[in-house]
Design goal:
nine-stranded mixed β-sheet, globular, 11 strands, alpha/beta, single chain
Length: 237
């Protein structure tokens, strides 16, 4: 434990990260690969909570833009995050890691309800806690849910796993001259409208002085580097 920079962390993953090369749905090989990274990090003794998006299955905002009522679309998106959470739980437990899925929308046959004290107790027992169904309310993204759960569970940092190495001034997949930032302030993220997390999540992190680290989840060993304090990605503080 003394080698850890952070002893309790909140890991945020996009739903798209689970889709792998298919771009849609859940790719078992992709899920298994990054779950191995989570198992390696957990072996260090870190207490790990997770929030996973649902964009690989259903995107509420996209459906809303196409004419669906926003609240209904968002609830469907929340249900998609539960499917992803159960998939990740299955992959982690096949690798020998004890987990619990806690949902903000009650569905007792599938997972436990999200109760803060219960979640904290699971973390203390060394279980990975996967927080599903966002905040349980429409109009809030899973980014905001991640920030909220990080505060509630007394995490020391929000770690956002992405497909790129950190935060850039523009999309590095489209522009060869994109520049990556090593460090940013919350206000720089908001003023430059950088796509770290949505503005509500960044504002919540800023108000509670919660650092955010954005890193490439698909580089082996990166998650371990972040948790032990080695340089990997961009830090917002």
């Amino acid at each position: 434990m003394e080698n850890l920079r952070f002893k309790r962390v909140l890991l945020k993953l996009s739903g798209e990260a689970l889709a792998g090369p298919k771009g849609f749905g859940i790719d078992p090989e992709t899920v298994s690969n990054f779950c191995k990274e989570i198992v390696e990090a957990a072996s260090l003794g870190v207490e790990l909570a997770m929030v996973i998006g649902g964009g690989n299955i259903f995107r509420g905002m996209s459906a809303s833009a196409s004419g669906m009522e926003r609240a209904s679309a968002d609830y469907m998106g929340m249900l998609a995050t539960v499917m992803n959470a159960v998939a990740v739980q299955d992959a982690l437990e096949k690798l020998g890691l004890s987990t619990r899925v806690l949902s903000a929308i009650t569905m007792q046959e599938v997972c436990e309800p999200y109760i803060r004290r219960r979640a904290e107790r699971h973390l203390e027992k060394g279980r990975v806690v996967i927080c599903a169904a966002g905040t349980g309310n429409p109009y809030f993204t899973t980014d905001t849910a991640a920030a909220l759960r990080a505060m509630e569970l007394k995490s020391q940092v929000i770690i956002k796993g992405t497909k790129v190495d950190g935060v850039y001034d523009k999309d590095p997949k489209k522009f060869d001259d994109a520049v990556m930032f090593d460090r940013l302030t919350y206000m720089e993220v908001l003023e430059k409208q950088l796509k770290v997390m949505d503005s509500t999540a960044v504002s919540l992190a800023m108000d509670n002085n919660m650092p955010i680290v954005v890193f490439n989840m698909f580089v082996p060993g990166n998650l371990k580097k972040v948790i032990t304090g080695d340089r990997a990605g961009t830090i917002v503080e």
